[in-house]
């Protein structure tokens, strides 16, 4: 068991870093780091002897940048020219960095950006290279843009096969490479695009996928939260089956798998349409322990008057032996559970809109 837990909270106006011990009862927060910059992505990279914090921050004056810290946020370093940049000839400029995730190999980090592209680093986030075959994919001219923009917001490297990566964007759907980025294919069979006309709601691509997750011990199984629908795939995205029965709403943004239990998954349902807050305005996390066959409501300690949403990356789990779960809301509050979702309490409040939370034992 690690004696320290780190929680990174990215908002529209900066980053806050919380630290606690393994019990996670008392938290101390520092911030804002990157004051008044949008932070849509962050990562606690606990590989190696020295943990590294990575942040994708966007300045209204200087644009997006990947920052790194090897001293838990006491100081930050930037890569010259921004680290994540399109090569000459692509006629594109990075607007935001929506995702930062580690790959299975030492030193590898992936970044997902707006406009929709995936970049790969082999030096722990100091330099990045564009996944050119995905950028040049023939579907790209027809990808739409969700309300939040067109971006690769989910990247899932296969834990055992460095050549396999699954990625998702709004409104384009799920794509996967099995040859190290040489080619990418759409994997959306069975995912409904409810906003399309009847008879056209199951296209090859164009779905508005909000988030995907999977457990490292069962990499062939994926869980997906869609714009209207919650799904599971047992064949690494080749086909998808609805698991939304039993939930109070099919709409939502985050979906998180338990780090120690591959059949346990968590969602935060909200109303669709123009009421983007939870059903009955009650903040509730819903958990399935049987891979989505049944669901149970978790609300002990959560408010019954909650008229805000939880965004796609604003819910996460740490990797302590007894897992902690966290979510941040658009009212600037962060809630935590140190007992795997059974009870919750607010650990920080009055921050700007929370866009991303990431936690790890170090």
TrEMBL record:
Lineage: Bacteria, Bacillati, Actinomycetota, Actinomycetes, Propionibacteriales
Coiled coil: none
Name of the protein in question: Exo-alpha-sialidase
Organism, scientific name: Nocardioides mangrovi
């Amino acid at each position: 068991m690690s004696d320290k837990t780190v929680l990174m909270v990215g908002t529209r106006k900066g980053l806050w870093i919380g630290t606690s011990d393994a019990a996670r009862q008392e938290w101390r927060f520092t911030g804002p780091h990157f004051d008044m910059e949008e932070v849509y992505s962050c990562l606690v990279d606990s590989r190696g002897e020295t943990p590294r914090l990575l942040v994708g921050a966007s300045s209204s004056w200087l644009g997006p940048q990947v920052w790194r810290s090897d001293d838990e946020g006491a100081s930050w370093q930037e890569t010259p020219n921004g680290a994540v940049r399109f090569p000459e000839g692509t006629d594109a400029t990075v607007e935001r960095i929506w995702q930062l995730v580690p790959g299975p190999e030492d030193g590898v980090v992936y970044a997902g950006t707006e406009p929709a592209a995936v970049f790969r680093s082999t030096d722990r986030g100091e330099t990045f290279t564009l996944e050119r075959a995905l950028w040049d994919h023939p579907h790209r001219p027809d990808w739409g843009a969700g309300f939040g923009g067109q971006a690769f917001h989910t990247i899932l490297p296969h834990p055992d096969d460095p050549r396999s990566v699954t990625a998702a964007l709004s409104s384009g759907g799920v794509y996967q490479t099995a040859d190290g980025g040489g080619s990418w294919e759409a994997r959306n069979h069975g995912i409904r695009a409810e906003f399309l006309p009847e008879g056209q709601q199951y296209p090859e691509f164009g779905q508005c996928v909000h988030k995907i997750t999977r457990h490292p011990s069962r990499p062939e199984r994926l869980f997906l939260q869609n714009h209207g629908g919650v799904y599971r795939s047992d064949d690494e995205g080749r086909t998808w089956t609805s698991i939304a029965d039993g939930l109070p709403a099919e709409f939502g943004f985050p979906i998180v798998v338990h780090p120690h239990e591959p059949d346990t998954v968590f969602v935060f349902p909200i109303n669709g349409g123009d009421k983007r807050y939870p059903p009955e305005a009650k903040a509730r996390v819903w958990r399935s322990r049987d891979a989505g066959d049944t669901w149970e409501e978790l609300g002990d300690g959560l408010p019954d008057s909650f008229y805000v949403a939880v965004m796609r990356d604003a819910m996460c789990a740490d990797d302590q032996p007894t897992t902690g779960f966290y979510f941040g809301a658009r009212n600037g509050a962060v809630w935590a559970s140190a007992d795997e979702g059974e009870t919750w309490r607010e650990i920080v409040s009055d921050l700007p809109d929370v866009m991303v939370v990431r936690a790890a034992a170090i």
